[in-house]
Amino acid sequence: MILRLYIIILLYFAVGVIAFYFINRNKEKSIARKSWRKTIIYFIIIQIVFFTIIINPLVFRSLAIIIIIMGFYELFKLFKDSVYSHKTIFIVSLVIFGVFAWGFYVFSNMGKEIIFFGFAIISIFDSFSQMTGQLWGRKKLYPKISPDKTMAGLIGGTFAAVLSVFLFKSLVSGQLFDALILASGASVFAFIGDTSCSFYKRKYNVKDFSNLIPEHGGFLDRFDSLVAGGVWFAMYYSIIS
Known about the structure:
The chain has helices at residues 2-24, 29-55, 57-81, 87-108, 112-136, 151-163, 165-168, 176-203, 219-240. By secondary structure, the protein is mostly helical. Helix 4 (87-108) packs across helix 9 (219-240).
């Protein structure tokens, strides 16, 4: 089972490499190199998260706590760097992230199969949103908040995530309908998480939360979708249980 899941992840990454080849081939060399570095670092991060889930749920839980702590740190860092401006935005964001952090921690305490299903679906949504958005994105969703987000990216990421349910359904108990609802909701929450972080950064007029993860804008930029998507899983299972 584990080997099959790992092969599927590698195949998805191979599709991503092909897509980014076409995306980067006409870009300036410096920009293309930066894009490839980002892709390689993302692959390493995916491996780390995958193996923390597989090795032991406690290891993933520890990683989740690190992500939460670093998220609070990066929110405060932008607030401090701005000489404590936009206090209302900061306080509201802190409260919202606190709620999301708790939901993500609850998600990290779930069974290994559910955690992996959520991680796979959210990662696929995140990756395919970027790929389809850069390949075919024309209509910007909200250029003032996040100029890279397009309608094509949102549709492409959601479609890929929902379609992937058929590959990972064995990880989830219940009917296929339940798995499809989980994947659809995770896509929506991942999108909300990503958008919320973009809104916070724009309020502080920065591109990245920090340089703690090279080319990825920090912990919140890299894990915002996973945190928010994890909240959906925690909510869904608390409702049906």
